[in-house]
Amino acid sequence: MNIQRWIARREASWRRLDELLNRAEAKGLDTLTTEEIKTLASLYRSVSADLARARTQDVGEALIRDLQGLTSRSYSQIYQGSRRQDWQAVIKFYQYGFPAAVRRSWGYIAISTALFVISGFIAWWYAWQDPSFMSLVLGPGFVAEVQESEELWTVSILGQEPVASSAIMVNNIAVCFNAIFGGVAFFLPQVPIITPPGVFTVYILVFNGLMIGSVATLVAQTDLAYDLWAFVFPHGSLELPAIFFAGGAGLLLARAILLPGKYRRIDALQVYGRQAAELVYGIVPMLIIAGIIEGFFSPSPLIPNVVKYATGTVLFCVLVSYCLQRSPQTVEETRRESPAIDHALQ
After folding, report:
1. 125-130 contact pairs (CB < 8 A, 24+)
2. HEC string for 237-251
3. In angstroms, rounded to a whole number, what is the distance separating the alpha carbons of residues 218 and 260?
4. Closest CA to 294 of 115, 209, 172
5. How far apart are CA 56 and CA 198, in angstroms?
6. Position 279 pLDDT exceeds 70
7. What is the pLDDT of residues 156-166, one digit of tens each?
8. Which of 181, 275, 334, 342 is 20 to 30 A away from residue 208, measured at CA?
9. CB 170: neighbour CB atoms within 10 A?
């Protein structure tokens, strides 16, 4: 191989790659155009081949070091830069993407919340009228134990906080995922039957609402309401909205199957399934945080109840504010559009 001729023929490619790398390293890979990124990837492959060839020829250590530098810099930008972009995308999703998904799905989340709240009020009313209803929902043994001991069952968490916190997280995540998967269909091994789309989602929401309503009556009758809701408020401010979001995701999937509208069912599942998946990505961190709070903060006797109530209230307000948060780009687009809208209305 004529070394000098080979170097002269390949030198332009090396310089071009070095130029692209300098720009990417100075301002970021995302400042390059799509064509330039394709060129960078192509030149990386060709320079890697050049380096392999140079090592088998007597081209000099200086050129080999230069080619090694180009390949290592290219690898760093293409692969590690891609990882940085992935992390940036994750951060951006949790900053603005998840709140946007919640706002787009507000109707389904409202239905989910209504199912839970209405069933809770129904259970509360029936439990006051008929004590046997409370035993039917919560179990006669549990009701009798609380009435006799006049003590909250939450004290069992004390002394085993790490285990309890992990178990709580797993249980809450299981409840939410059951509500989500129930939007498609759900197999009930106890019966066994496969429920229609959305039925199991509704069941999860109604059943949990009935339990909360029955528990509310039980603690009210035993003068434990203030202590129980102080326990519930800190983690419930995240846990209950997460369940409502999960119910909304399940109803989105059920809508895709039962009422696809202008879409084919497979297309509707892709559209609404993506929207439901965005809710899922946000639900899991909420449940993890709620599980930590429920395991370590909520049951602690060292923390006054008033602090627990205040903590739950602040967390809920922060969650609402977070869900209303819009990206700067969206806000700017709204500002640009508003004069045109005002003019059209006039």
Report:
1. 125/213, 127/213, 127/214, 127/217, 127/218, 128/217
2. HHHHHHHHHHHHHHH
3. 43
4. 172
5. 66
6. yes
7. 665 665 666 66
8. 275
9. 12
CA distances from 292 to 21, 189, 238, 337 (A): 45, 31, 11, 43
d(CA 289, CA 231) in angstroms, rounded, equals 15
Rounded CA-CA distance 243/250 in Å is 10
Which tokens belong to 192? 């066994």
Q: Which residue has tokens 């809450």?
A: 172
What is d(CA 210, CA 123) in angstroms, rounded to the nearest whole number?
A: 5
CA–CA separation, 1 vs 125, rounded Å?
92
Helix (H) or strand (E) holding 193: strand 193-195
Gap between the Cα atoms of 259 and 271, Å rounded: 13
User: pLDDT digits over 122-162, tens only?
Assistant: 999 988 888 788 888 888 888 888 888 777 766 666 566 56
Q: Smallest Cα–Cα separation from 245: which of 200, 274, 282?
A: 282
For residue 17, which of 31, 25, 80 has the smallest C-alpha distance? Answer: 25
Residue 22 is encoded by which pair of tokens?
């300098």
CB 234 within 8 A of CB 157: no
Instruction: Supply 14's token pair.
Output: 């090396």
Instruction: Give the separation between CA 163 and CA 158, rounded to whole angstroms.
Output: 10
Q: DSSP H helical segments within 34-183, as ranges?
A: 34-56, 61-75, 81-92, 98-104, 106-129, 131-138, 140-149, 161-181
Judged against a pLDDT cut of 60, whether residue 114 lies above it is answered with yes
Residue 283 CB partners (closer than 8 Å, separation 6+): 176, 242, 245, 246, 249
The single residue listed with the structure tokens 């059920």 is 254
- 260 by DSSP, 3-state: which? coil
For residues 143 and 215, give the distance between their C-alpha atoms in angstroms, rounded to a whole number.
9
